[in-house]
Amino acid sequence: MQKSLEEKVYAGVLGKIIGVFYGRPIEGWPYEKIRQTFGVVDHYVYKEAGTPLIVADDDVAGTFTFLNAVEDCRDVSTISAKDFGEAWLDYVIEDKTIFWWGGLGRSTEHTAYLRLKQGIPAPLSGSIELNGQAVAEQIGAQIFMDALAMMCPGDPRNAGRLVRELSSVSHDGIAVEAACFLASLEALAFEIRETDQLLDAALAKGVSPRLREIIDRVREVCSRNQDFRAVRQWLDEEYGYHLYPGNCHVIPNFALILASLILGGDDFYYAMEICISCGWDTDCNGANLGCINGIRLGLDAINEAFDFRGPVADRLYKISSNGGACVSDAVQETRRILAANAKLYGEKSPEKRRRYEFEFPGSVQGFENCPYLGDHDERPENSNMRGCGNGLWLSVDHGKRAVSVPVMFDLRDRQASYCLTASPVLYESQTVYAVFDVPENEIKIQLYIAWYDFDNNIQFTYSPQYTVQSRLEIAWKIPKLGGMPISRLGILCESDKKGAVILRHMDWDGAPEHFEISIPLRNYDIGMNMAMEAFVSSAKQFHFDARASFVISHTEKNGVATIGTEQWKDYKVTSVLEPGIHQRFGLLGRSRGHRRYYALMLWDHKYAGLVCKKGSEEICLVQIPFAYRENHKYRLELSMCGKKITGKIDEIYLEALDDTYSCGGAGFVTDEGTALAYGFCVEGLEGMKR
Asked: What is the reported pLDDT for 2?
């Protein structure tokens, strides 16, 4: 892809998350209440609504999590609804992540998930035949599809094919048709800017008479009436919620997106203002519209008139069972889409980048003035907007300046609608590498971390301080924290003059050299310790215990709790486990989702083995007789180095070779029972690969 296309993908991602966070605080508000409260919604209204700005949301989490199906499959040209359905089971945690869990026959996604869990494959899982038209034609199909459409710049055929397969997991009928039409618009928007030409080109690919009638009627009414209030009144009369069953039918929202696109013209801000001010499913509609116009109009249009980008700062959460991927930003998700595009079209995959490179105009990748160490009037910005190359520009003026980026979810971002669960992306004993430039004057620079202590209070740990006049390269090893999680990674600058610092890039890689939780995590004063919150659990119960560090209990098969990221490659994980009643229990590693991992397992009181879990399939790599008892402790160690997978139970060894997985987090697994865990330790094995 050419650079202009890469930037359009980034603008599409940015437009989507801006739309979500613009509309999210008033999602579900009646149109009359929005109008009476705000008149026109011309800014982020999260403060007035009493919510955080950056929150967990299904539009963001679903869109960027279901892209995993493309990354996991061997041949994208043959990817099917069944493959996307398997990804649902791999990455969705029941009753927790991504969806509105509103019940069978009420929430479309909840209904489809239960069908998949029952063994009913997609697309039957989302069909009108099985779930009825009312459930199957709600809005969800079009809110999850944008990443797939952006994989296919200028190629509406492939965009429509991919989106149809994804959408059919949970939806049917006009919901799927509408999603495919919006996907065509996004794919064509890479090449066509003019709105009427864009709509004509998408229609030329073919739509059903039912959808064609809606599109034609919306275009006609918008051509003769530019007053969005009058158009909103017409939309309510002709396509309002009261005319359709269910909580959030696709037709009213699809029609509103289309009207906002037409009436907004080439003004990103005005189109978004119309869309959010008109109500209905405000975050979903804003997200789709923002993505289309981000691609079509580009970054310059987003930058004009209103500071959309500053408060969001590229940040997003994608809550799923792959907990180490939850804390993310628009740049990282753009890179994933570009890599998926290369995979789809058989091109060379883009080179791996450092976590923070700030390669797009204005991107800041989540860096903001540190909420813990004072405030600053001026936000961090990208030095490429000043003509100084890519980097994070930090002005320093006679004093100190602290900026930081979240490396774990921020407790202030929790709100009632969606479960915000995630593992940190940075751990004790990992080494942070950073390169700074100082354009003028002498400046003192330190890295620091903000981390949670046992009482969930924020503590600070600092690197050595460096005095810099031109360039500085830092390699800072995070000291031991007793297994406590890191909240933020920051930069502290100090100068007695006016100057600036440019962070050119920052990264870390590999598993922690030594990350260990060795104490019980029950805190009698506060209850749940943040060290437990750092694990992402799909087990029915995962909690502290009076004696042990953790207790994991599950009534079904495959109750999993994990911590760590896909940067963890070669490492060993160790814990002392004590089984209660159970079918199986053990340690797992290289987890990407809760049905994709290696595990050292014990089962039926007489066997032990190494297994490779591959979605619905499980392969036993090696099995041995091993008699053991309930309520007795066993030291388990699972080691993964290259293709070599090794297990150790006390002094008994198991070994296998397998290359299914090369990286991922670690944790616990239990089937139909309970296990206590005493301590948990991860030790990197980088450089030991054979």
From this structure: 54
- Residues 21-28 have a mean pLDDT of 95
**Cβ-Cβ contacts under 8 Å for 154 (sequence gap 6 or more):** 187, 188, 190, 191
**Percent with pLDDT over 90 in the chain:** 90
268-277 helix and 250-264 helix, angle to the nearest 10 degrees: 150
Token pair listed for 292 = 């289309």
User: Please, what is the angle between helix 3-23 and helix 58-65, to 10°?
Assistant: 150
Q: Which amino acid is at 113?
A: Y
Q: In whole angstroms, what is the distance from residue 630 CA to residue 585 CA? A: 11
pLDDT digits (tens, 9 = 90+) for 47-66: 999 999 999 999 999 999 99
Note the pLDDT tens digit of each residue in 321-335: 999 999 999 999 999
Please answer whether residues 163 and 155 qualify as being in contact, where contact means their C-beta atoms are separated by less than 8 angstroms: no
- Secondary structure element (H or E) that encloses residue 270, with its range: helix 268-277
What is the pTM assigned to this prediction? Answer: 0.96
Placement of tokens 């098969």 in the chain = 557
Q: Considering only CA atoms, which of 326, 355, 329 is closest in space to residue 507?
A: 355
Give me the domains of the chain, ranges plus CATH numbers: 8-317 (1.10.4080.10), 353-507 (2.60.120.260), 515-684 (2.60.120.560)
**Helix locations, 494-653, DSSP H:** 530-533
Q: Which of 523, 632, 626 is nearest to 576 (CA)?
A: 632
3-state secondary structure of 70: helix
Tokens 């981390």 correspond to 451
